[in-house]
Specification:
mainly alpha; MARVEL-CKLF_proteins; lipoprotein
Length: 153
């Protein structure tokens, strides 16, 4: 067992150090870009409700879960337990998969909006696709570095 795991010392930050350490700094950007996806998808024209429903579910779920997780880190709820490192890695892996699926489906919806709809709706969906892929990239990077932290704990 690694020395840090044996002694119960966690490498997770608490307090406002969450916003100054990597990869936890990415919480801010995940929050911003996830919120943009949520806003753009909810305000855009819905050509296929089932696809847009999954995109909304994924973006709202990740937005709320990221907010709650960041808040719990700030208040120090992890209490230096290593199980929170596992939770962090697992959540970001799941969020990466959710957002990747949502990004692909949102791109499909935008492609189908190309003909026969107002240009405004097409631009809103294209913006949602771009921000969704940015959010996916942020979650993937956070997941990779969380897995590295988990492996070394």
């Amino acid at each position: 067992m690694a020395p840090s795991a044996a002694s119960g010392v966690s490498s997770l930050p608490s307090g406002f150090a969450v916003f100054t350490t990597f990869p936890d700094l990415l919480f801010i950007f995940e929050f911003v870009f996830g919120g943009l996806v949520w806003i753009l998808v909810s305000s855009s024209h819905v050509p296929i409700p089932l696809i847009q429903g999954w995109v909304m579910f994924a973006s709202v779920f990740c937005f709320v879960a990221t907010t709650v997780l960041a808040f719990l880190y700030v208040i120090g709820a992890h209490g230096n337990r290593t199980s929170w490192i596992t939770l962090d890695a697992a959540y970001h892996c799941v969020a990466s998969l959710f957002y990747f699926g949502a990004s692909v489906l949102e791109a499909l919806a935008a492609i189908q909006l190309q003909d026969g709809f107002l240009y405004k709706y097409y631009h809103e969906n294209i913006s949602a696709v771009v921000f969704s892929y940015v959010a996916t990239l942020l979650y993937v990077v956070h997941a990779v570095f969380s897995l590295i932290r988990w492996k070394s704990s």
